[in-house]
Design brief:
Two copies of one chain form a homodimer. With 190 residues, the first copy, chain A, is mainly α. Chain A has one domain: Tetracycline Repressor, domain 2 (Orthogonal Bundle). The first copy, chain A, is 76% helix and 0% strand. The first copy, chain A, has ten helices and no strands. In chain A, helix 6 packs parallel to helix 9 and helix 9 runs antiparallel to helix 10. Chain A is elongated, with a radius of gyration of 18 Å. The N and C termini of chain A lie far apart (59 Å). At the A-B interface, helix 7, helix 8, helix 9 and helix 10 of A face helix 7, helix 8, helix 9 and helix 10 of B. Chain B binds a DNA duplex (30 and 30 nucleotides) through helix 3.
DNA sequence: GATTTTACTTACTAGTTAGTAAGTTGTCAA
DNA sequence: TTGACAACTTACTAACTAGTAAGTAAAATC
């Protein structure tokens, strides 16, 4: 038995990374195993099926987001800084080997992933949307943001844009991603 | 020899459909073959490798877009209607079995597709962006559109948004897609 | 000190993948 | 009518896929 500190967590992190790098159909148990220097079956020991692994990745992602947004360091920020924090998550993904949003990655392959994963993606996407909607509404009330229409729709627009912009950056470079983020701010901030 | 009218074109169309439905890693030669009632090798006869097939799909997509945008029926439209036509392409995709933008689909899997395909995606994305940028610039000059900043950045934002919104609709439904499109118009049209 | 549990490895399976080589058959041009 | 060619099929391969069953060794628990 090789001594790996908390190997379940290590597998989870690597799986998340691979999902954001190559998509659900783009990586295999063999990839994970060889990367970690263990055998195929070791991964199956922790996550019996690929669906289990996928679900765990999304649940971990959800937990982390909930933890952050409930933390005073984000919760008590003014609206504009909350939004900057949120945009920062996506900028970090871009900086981290050109990763793409987990949600977008799984929605592109939505019709070829297990049903249990589809549900999980749905829930995560809703949670992101809800937080963003509340932040936009709060910011408009405080005259920090300026936009017409329903905050829910503006939230859906912004999330879609971030998701698409990370993908665009894959083909056209990081500058394009930053341009889009700047344009979003230009369209939103007073 | 079974009599199929222009089977190369039939394969191409089905491949495009599968790409927008399941992604590049989500379909196989066997899928295409069984759907068309032919054998695996028949597909390889027309498109020796999967990279060849992918390139042909994208090139076909590019040709079609160029044809449309150069046609008087689009070319001579006022800016607002040009934009409506463009948005209509994405609405049609959504209506057509929840398809997703070809570019987004391939950018999610960018790091697990052949290099030749990556180039082709890059070129297509640039062409879409260039047309949209020109249309936005033209529309702002004609006081049909209203936005701050560089038309190139606004074009990148809009394209990213459409791409992301089609993906979002997979998990959260068509209404969300329409909401995003309406919000974009609200943010743009005078 | 014995027993159970954890975290694996070894060795395998059945199915799928892209891709190939060689043969077949209908169509068309000379 | 013959020969070339287009459009396939048959039959195959090597590599990879998720997943399993049985065995092993160290560590934790009793």
């Amino acid at each position: 038995m090789v001594k790996i500190e908390n190997s379940k967590r290590t597998i989870l992190n690597l799986a998340e990374s691979l999902l954001q790098d190559k998509g659900f159909n783009g990586f295999s148990y063999a990839h994970i195993a060889s990367e970690l220097g263990v055998k195929n079956a070791a991964i199956h020991y922790h996550f019996p099926t690929k669906e289990d692994l996928g679900r765990a990745v999304i649940q971990h992602y959800r937990d982390r987001f909930k933890l952050w947004t409930n933390n005073a360091r984000v919760k008590d920020l003014p609206s504009r800084e909350k939004l900057d924090w949120f945009f920062g998550i996506y900028s970090s993904m871009r900086a981290d080997k050109g990763k793409v949003c987990l949600v977008g990655s799984m929605e592109v392959e939505f019709n070829s992933i297990p049903g249990g994963l589809q549900e999980e993606v749905q829930i995560l996407h809703k949670e992101l949307l809800d937080w963003l909607e509340a932040t936009l509404a709060e910011g408009r009330d405080a005259d920090a943001f300026q936009f017409n229409g329903d905050p829910a729709n503006k939230a859906a627009l912004i999330l879609s844009t971030l998701q698409g912009a990370l993908q665009m950056a894959r083909a056209l470079g990081t500058k394009k991603f930053r341009d889009v983020v700047e344009q979003m701010k230009l369209d939103l901030i007073v």
